[in-house]
Amino acid sequence: MSFLQVLLQAAADGGRGLAVMGAAAGAGLAAIGAGLGLGKIGSSALEGVARQPEAANKIQTMMIIIAALVEAVALFAAVICLLISFKLA
Q: Which PANTHER family does the annotation name (predicted)?
């Protein structure tokens, strides 16, 4: 089955299938964005510790706080996308 056939079947029920597919894509993008954000946070923290080893504790604390905020935003986005898909399905 080609991608075009999947889109046509999804559009056949008044667009609800397309909305669910969009919600699934949104959840996937939120997960990808969180992964990229956490990777950037980790690499920047490692660079900071390599440049100033005496500030490792402060850098680690800030890194953990920022990583938690990034994960929270990604979790909220995924939950919203799942709620949309369950409401429309």
A: ATP SYNTHASE LIPID-BINDING PROTEIN, MITOCHONDRIAL (PTHR10031), ATPASE PROTEIN 9 (PTHR10031:SF0)
